[in-house]
Each structure stands twice: as structure tokens, then as C-alpha cells.
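Field log, afternoon session.

UNIT: design team B
ACTIVITY: writing a sequence onto a fixed backbone
BACKBONE:
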């Protein structure tokens, strides 16, 4: 049902009147629905500091990240711009409704609203679909003229070499996640490319950022790195090694600074072991691999047949030989999942000494091929619950509660004390990887009880103890 907001319109601001702008990132959790725990790793968001850097003088810009501070929007605010993902878009809509009721124009952007324009326009004055950096100065001019358009089509044509150094000084940096408490600054983000040529069914990247890769001159990155003064970085690219030549140039550039960083690789990395060696020399400390499943038939159903489960062990060993810890992503929600197949996955990850694993339920986010296939089967569109922790669409022959139990079983088995010791703390583990991996594993153990407050049923645990999977 559409939300009707009574809007108290203001007078035109005038072309030469500086704007008072609030850039807002809504919180990722909703305490009104019992979601009391914040994600334990909150990184500074790169989108809003970039928009702030693009904002021409003499406009005044303030950034509010509701994940680390209280939201406050003064009455003299001339524009609120909100960026959202699916899991926090409903909070974004709530903020937008409140602002518009006070006569403050609202622009919304981000992955979710780019694909749900009509939904978003029930709550805001304008939607930016796709990348919005190049459109931002024009949007500000339209606000001054009281001539905001309902939709601004950004697409995915941003020249990455035109992006400025983000205004990190506008964030409360001391409140973000530090992998090691003694670090002076939190993990900072840098972006060297956009796009992904793969077309995995569950991923928004190729649709939002395009299937054609766009790269940034690595020399620009050194300027940003020097401006930050941080010791640990997250490279926010969705896939670092799609173009091996570009990856090699990037790693050689990063090696000019004494850094630690982590980034996203794919399973094709095994074909280019020299890239892993270069990454390690440039300061790579952790690599995330979206392996999704150890079962080829499951990978085929989500258009990820290029993952080769029989090669996972060799791939993980390649990173380990170079002193790089490995984080993997594993999906639940495939048909015909069983206790046996779940335990088989856990044993395989333990056998490969994977440092950390993120288990999540396959979720049809708007914009994905999975969403297009399942939108008539959605159980609800309560976007707050699209967190990867529960089943949100109906599947034949698959029980939602059983999937939830398998997810909980995976977390509890993988992050058990014996499992942590074998994977992370045993004498065979690489000394350079131990500290960060130990901290991450202990943090995951601490949040399992918040994600799964109820113990698994006795009959389910009994079936898990009796299960005899055929380990890979």
C-alpha cells in the first residue's frame, strides 16, 4: 500500500544560495523487529565520502552513518541524500518519510532503489538509478531551482579516473572496525575497478555495475592511500583478477607502499599463481573466495559452473603458501540439502584449513536473475529480513525451517573450539595468519548466540550425530 506523506514545500532556494546537505547511510539492523545486534565489522562507507568530495563549494556537507552514530537532521537542512542496500532500505524509507514531512527534499540511491524505482518514489522526491557520481552536481542545481526530476539515470558509465579522494574527514573514523585494536585507523576502502563479467544468478554486481570491466589508473590510488594514513585497506572491487594484466599492475603499484589489505578473488586465480605471489608481496593479508558450494550440481543451478570444487584445496593452499588467509562464502537454500551434505561441506572446509567462512541463505535481491525467477514465489517483501539468515521464497521440496537449522549447524560446527584449533591455532598454521584469523573466529563465536538464540532441537542434533557423510 503506498505511503502518503504530507509534504510542506519550501520556497525556491535560488541558484546562488549554498545548500546545507545531509548524506545519510541508514543502519543495517532494525531494533524494532528484535534485531539487537549490529554487524560486528562496520567499515567506513565509500559512497557518501565520495559524493561529499564531488560537492562543489560553497555547499555545506555533513555525513551521518547511523551504524556508528545517532541520526540528527536539523530543520535548516536543504537536502537529504540517502544511499541504501536491500537490508537497510526500509529504514531509509522511514528516514525519507520523516524528512519530507518536514519539507526537506530527499534523493535516494543505491543498489536496491536502482531496481525498485516505483517503490522508492513512494517515499522520496528523486531516485538515482545506477552510479550517481557524475549526476550529483546536476542534482544539486535542480534542488536549488526546485526542479528535482523523479528519476536520474546514472547507469554504469562513470569514468573512475575522475573520482576525487573521498572526504573521509567527515566520518567518525574512530568508531569503525579495527581488525587489530592497536591500529590507529579502521580498515579503509579503495576502489580500483567496477563491473564483473560473470553472471551468477544471485549477484547484483553485473547488473548494477555492468558486465564490462572499468579500471582506474593505479597511480591515482597512491594519492588516496597517502591521503588516508591508514595501515589496513579493503579493496572494494568485486573481482580483482578478471584481467590478469590489470591485477599485476595494481599489485605492483600497491607494493610501493607498506600496506596490509584484503580483497575479493575468484576461483580462476588458481590458473595464475604468480598473481597471488604479487598480491602477497604488495601486502595482501586476506582473500575472500565465493566458492558457494562444494557440490557441482548446486553450482550449476546458480550459473557458477566455472567453480571447480575438486580444485578448492589446491586454490586455498596457493594462498596459504603465500601467507594469505582465506575467507570463503558458502550458500544455503539449494534443493535437496541435507544434514549429510552440510557436514560434508564443513569437513571439507576444515580439511582445507579455511580461516573463516560466511554462511548465508541464498536470497533473491532485486535486480538479480534469481529475483526475476522467483519474484512470484516470494514469501514477503519485508526487506529488513533479506539478510541472508532466512529463506524468503518458496521452493518445491525444500523446507525453510530445515534450511535455517542447517545454517545454524554449519556455524556451530565450523566455529566450534576444536574446529578453530585445527584450522587456525595448530602448529601447522602459518604464524602470519594466526592473529587475524583467531580474532575473526572468536568474534564469530560471540555472535552465533545472537543470530541463533534458540538451541537446535534434540531430534535434529541426534540426526546430525548419526549422519555419515561421504566426505569429499
Amino acid at each position: 500500500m503506498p505511503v502518503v506523506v504530507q509534504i510542506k514545500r519550501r520556497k525556491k532556494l535560488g541558484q546562488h544560495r549554498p545548500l546545507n546537505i545531509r548524506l545519510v547511510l541508514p543502519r543495517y539492523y532494525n531494533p524494532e523487529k528484535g534485531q539487537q545486534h549490529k554487524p560486528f565489522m562496520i567499515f567506513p562507507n565509500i559512497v557518501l565520502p565520495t559524493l561529499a568530495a564531488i560537492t562543489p563549494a560553497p555547499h555545506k556537507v555533513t555525513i551521518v552513518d547511523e551504524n556508528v552514530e545517532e541520526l540528527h537532521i536539523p530543520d535548516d537542512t536543504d537536502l537529504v541524500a540517502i544511499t541504501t542496500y536491500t537490508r537497510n532500505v526500509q529504514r531509509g524509507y522511514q528516514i525519507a518519510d520523516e524528512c519530507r514531512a518536514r519539507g526537506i527534499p530527499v534523493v535516494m540511491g543505491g543498489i536496491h532503489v536502482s531496481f525498485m524505482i516505483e517503490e522508492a518514489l513512494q517515499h522520496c522526491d528523486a531516485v538515482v538509478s545506477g552510479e550517481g557520481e557524475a549526476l550529483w552536481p546536476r542534482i544539486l542545481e535542480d534542488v536549488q531551482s526546485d526542479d528535482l526530476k523523479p528519476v536520474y539515470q546514472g547507469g554504469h558509465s562513470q569514468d573512475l579516473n575522475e573520482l576525487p579522494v573521498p572526504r573521509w574527514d567527515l566520518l567518525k573514523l574512530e568508531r569503525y572496525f579495527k581488525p587489530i585494536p592497536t591500529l590507529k585507523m579502521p580498515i579503509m576502502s579503495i576502489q580500483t575497478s567496477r563491473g564483473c563479467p560473470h553472471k551468477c544468478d544471485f549477484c547484483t554486481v553485473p547488473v548494477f555495475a555492468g558486465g564490462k570491466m572499468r579500471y582506474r589508473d593505479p597511480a591515482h590510488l597512491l594519492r588516496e592511500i597517502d591521503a588516508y594514513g591508514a595501515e589496513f585497506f579493503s579493496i572494494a572491487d568485486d573481482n580483482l583478477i578478471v584481467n590478469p594484466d590489470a591485477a599485476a599492475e595494481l599489485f605492483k603499484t600497491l607494493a610501493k607502499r607498506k600496506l596490509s589489505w584484503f580483497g575479493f578473488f575468484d576461483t580462476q586465480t588458481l590458473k595464475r599463481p604468480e598473481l597471488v605471489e604479487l598480491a602477497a608481496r604488495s601486502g595482501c593479508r586476506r582473500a575472500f573466495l565465493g566458492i558457494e558450494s562444494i557440490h557441482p550440481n548446486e553450482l550449476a543451478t546458480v550459473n557458477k559452473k566455472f567453480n571447480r570444487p575438486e580444485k578448492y584445496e589446491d586454490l586455498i593452499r596457493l594462498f596459504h603458501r603465500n601467507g594469505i588467509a582465506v575467507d570463503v562464502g558458502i550458500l544455503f537454500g539449494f534443493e535437496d540439502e541435507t544434514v549429510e551434505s552440510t557436514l560434508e561441506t564443513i569437513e571439507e572446509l576444515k580439511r582445507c584449513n579455511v580461516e573463516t567462512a560466511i554462511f548465508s541463505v541464498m536470497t533473491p535481491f532485486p535486480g538479480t536473475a534469481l529475483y526475476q525467477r522467483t519474484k512470484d514465489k516470494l514469501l514477503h517483501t519485508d526487506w529488513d529480513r533479506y539478510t541472508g539468515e532466512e529463506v524468503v521464497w518458496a521452493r518445491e521440496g525444500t523446507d525453510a525451517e530445515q534450511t535455517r537449522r542447517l545454517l545454524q549447524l554449519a556455524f556451530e560446527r565450523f566455529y566450534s573450539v576444536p574446529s578453530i584449533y585445527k584450522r587456525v591455532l595448530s602448529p601447522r598454521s602459518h604464524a602470519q595468519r594466526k592473529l587475524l584469523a583467531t580474532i575473526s573466529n572468536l568474534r564469530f563465536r560471540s555472535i552465533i548466540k545472537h543470530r541463533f538464540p534458540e538451541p537446535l532441537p534434540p531430534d535434529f542434533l541426534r540426526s546430525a550425530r548419526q549422519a555419515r557423510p561421504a566426505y569429499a
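LOG NOTE: The longest strand covers residues 284-292.
NEXT ACTIVITY: expression trials, pending approval
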